[in-house]
Design a protein that fits this description.
By secondary structure, the chain is α+β, with helices and mostly antiparallel strands. It contains eight helices and ten strands. It has two domains: about 60 residues, Arc Repressor Mutant, subunit A; about 160 residues, Chorismate lyase-like (Chorismate lyase), CATH 3.40.1410.10. InterPro entries: Bact_HTH_transcr_reg, Chorismate_lyase_/UTRA_dom_sf, Tscrpt_reg_HTH_GntR, UTRA, WH-like_DNA-bd_sf, WH_DNA-bd_sf.
């Protein structure tokens, strides 16, 4: 069966097949961002009822692949390959990328117990000489580096995951919850643009001084205790962070 055709016998819901076809076309830049994706056009293309079309579009909206313009229709969002919605919980980016069909790969290096820099110690309210688990994680999408993160985890000394465990699970906090019952309740983020250093330029394959996006995150447990800190550097043109506010 050719790519772009539905397979009613596959067992995969039709809306998911439609969503994946459209998501892939958007991600690969095979759509016109100025041309709306109308229900009528999609009904004619896929020859299905309105229900799977509407469900597919709704999920594409929630994941940031399309947006709705009042009175004009639904338009594809081109440019960034990865759009992180506000409801992706902290520490779950790797799983979100997998669920979105982007086939992420991750490498972990430099696992060790260290005393963090003074700024991080003050942010987390640590005792003098308290040591945290530290490591570097590089996540790539379709074999291209997307984000490099420096991570500090406040955890019992017995928490000593291997590189293989961290790469397989995608999140140190998932391992921490599984082994010690320590769960995250919330996270506070700060984001800004920066210019790539020589080292970052080499990691991401961009020119020195190119724009990068930095997101620093402080994690808190269910009891409100600081649980860790992360500084994540992203390729600016490939990553879009979507968030919501309430009054």
């Amino acid at each position: 069966m050719a790519y772009g055709e539905l397979d009613p016998s596959s067992g995969v819901p039709l809306y998911r097949q439609i969503k994946e076809i459209l998501r892939r076309e958007i991600a690969e830049g095979n759509v016109d961002p100025n041309t709306p994706m109308t229900e009528a056009q999609l009904l004619g293309r896929f020859d299905v009822s309105r229900a799977p079309i509407r469900q597919a579009l709704q999920e594409l909206v929630s994941e940031g692949y399309v947006y709705r313009k009042q009175g004009k229709g639904t338009f594809p969002v081109t440019g960034a390959r990865v759009r992180r919605p506000a409801d992706v919980r902290s520490g779950a980016l790797y799983q979100y990328l997998s669920d979105s069909g982007l086939h992420p790969t991750g490498t972990v290096s430099g696992i060790e117990r260290v005393e963090p820099p003074a700024r991080i110690r003050d942010l987390l309210g640590l005792e003098a000489h308290e040591r945290l688990l530290h490591f570097i994680r590089l996540i790539s999408v379709e074999n291209e580096p997307l984000v490099e993160a420096s991570i500090y985890v406040r955890a019992p000394e017995e928490f000593s995951p291997s590189i293989e465990e961290l790469e397989d699970r995608g999140s140190a906090f998932e391992l921490l919850e599984r082994e010690f019952g320590i769960t995250l309740d919330r996270a506070e983020h700060e984001a800004w643009a920066t210019a790539a250093t020589a080292g970052q330029a080499a990691t991401f394959g961009v020119g020195e001084g190119s724009p990068l996006l930095v997101i620093e995150t402080t994690f808190f447990t269910t009891g409100g205790l600081p649980a860790g800190w992360r500084s994540a550097v992203h390729r600016a043109e490939d990553f879009k962070y979507r968030f919501t506010t309430s009054r």
